[in-house]
Amino acid sequence: MESNADTENQLMIEGSPDLQIDPKRARFPCCIVWTPIPVISWFIPFIGHIGICREDGVILDFAGPNFVSVDNFAFGAVARYLPISKEKLMLLHDFDQRFHAFPRPSLYISEDQQHDEQPENEILTWDDAIRKSTQEFQHRSYSLFTCNCHSFVANSLNRLRFNTGGWNVVNLATLIFLKGKWVNRASMVRSLLPFLVVISIGLAFGGYKKKTKKDYLHVINCDTIEIWNKQFQKANESKSLMIINFTASWCGPCRRINPFYRELAKKFPNVIFLEVDVDELMSVAEDWTVEAMPTFLFLKEGNIVDKM
């Protein structure tokens, strides 16, 4: 009898020969499946929605409060899958025989079922474990952080004692990310392309801001009278050519000229380029008889060389 039970259990785990993975029909016998979650997976690609498949390949996933979806995988088609090796499963009767354990309440049943003890000789097959987890999670509320789709799959794997159990949200997500197989190239592109686009946009805008900040280092913005006096004295002592751009935030032509002014400052590092906002330093503008914006002064040793 015991030999027959072992043989029956082995066949249940291995499945019949015609039960093969068929992505077109969404059939993944004895597998964990994964698909990206819109927006969230764009920024964190290893986070997604997962489910577990029965021996006939049908997907079950914890999709909401008190609801386990059957053959209707949330968030679209499967992108990655992970076949579960039967050699790494420690079924309940194997565990009891190996460690001579006595019948005891299941560690993974709900609180209202704790009085029901697991019969010593009952064989917990793959589908049995999923069915028991389904019954439990049909009475659970959904929480993004504490009770989600990963919790449902981890509960099933713990019932089967896959790799001796101890599965949770973190190590299960890590397992799928590191060892999950892509269904095809299209699923890989569909999962990773949004993340790469987001990264590219971030680098593009980040690079632009970095470049703009660097450009400003070549043009000294004199927004206080102290900075103006310091830079003016420095220019006189160095006897370098100093170009002053008198500008204003409300001046349209000033805004169009400013990028060229900064580009010019990059090409001539030996020239001191200053920028003065006439609204902030009106007294300086009056001292140098600035009447229109933009106005450019070319000074050498404190004397006006040119004005335009």
TrEMBL record:
The chain crosses the membrane at residues 188-208. It comes from the Eukaryota. The keyword Transmembrane helix applies. InterPro entries: Thioredoxin-like_sf, Thioredoxin_CS, Thioredoxin_domain, TMEM222/RTE1. Pfam families: RTE1, Thioredoxin. SUPFAM superfamilies: Thioredoxin-like. One of its GO terms (biological process) is response to ethylene. Keywords: Membrane, Transmembrane, Transmembrane helix. One of its GO terms (cellular component) is endoplasmic reticulum. This is Thioredoxin domain-containing protein.
